[in-house]
Amino acid sequence: MNVYDFHASALDGAPVDLSRYRGKLLLIVNTATACKFTPQFSGLEDIYRQFHERGLEVLGFPCNQFRGQEPRDEAGIGEFCQRNYGVSFPMFAKIDVNGVAAHPLYKHLKQEAPGLLGTKRIKWNFTKFLVGRDGKVVRRYGPQTPPEAIENDIAALLAS
């Protein structure tokens, strides 16, 4: 099983089969619009613009499980991200990343790349998963890791 085996809903509710990203390098991020890490949208957009033509997709999954830091509905999320950060990478409908209602994609990501000390939980918004062109998780990055710090890993994987 790999990332391409999952489905999600776009911000507009349209179903998205993640197999549409087959062969692409993916950076999957759980996001929020009212979090201290929200300014990372800017860095994520920069990475997307820098590497998209070479095969990178950034996929944003809003989550409201961390102190209610995603209070907006899907339309509000899209408008906020575009207006404040010029986000042009794909954003998806709000999901849970932890607990019994966690989205199956996130259950898979956590299983494939546990966090510090082997924890399977997502610690906070803006946890990032780098997924290789084969759909397998390469690395997990904590919320404190700014997108710019991942650039070298992305460049190396795109070059290989």
Structure, explained:
The protein is α+β, with helices and mostly antiparallel strands and about 160 residues long. It has one domain (about 5-160): Glutaredoxin (3-Layer(aba) Sandwich). About 25% of the residues lie in helices and about 20% in strands. It is built from 4 helices and 6 strands; from the N terminus they run βββαβααββα. A 4-stranded mixed beta sheet has the order 4-3-5-6, covered by helices on one side. Strands 1-2 form a two-stranded antiparallel sheet. The radius of gyration is 14 Å and the shape is globular.
Strand order of the largest sheet: 4-3-5-6
The SS-based structural class is alpha+beta
Large-scale geometry: globular
Radius of gyration: 14 Å
The CATH architecture assignment turns out to be 3-Layer(aba) Sandwich
Q: How many domains, as an integer?
A: 1
What's the level 1 CATH class? Alpha Beta
Q: What is the count of helical runs?
A: 4
Helix proportion of residues, in percent?
Answer: 25-40%
Q: Give the tally of β-strands.
A: 6
Report the order of strands and helices. EEEHEHHEEH
Biggest β-sheet, characterized?
A: 4 strands, mixed
Mean pLDDT: 96
Report how far the terminal alpha carbons are from each other: 22 Å
**CATH third-level topology:** Glutaredoxin
Query: pLDDT below 50 for ≥5 consecutive residues: which ranges?
Result: none
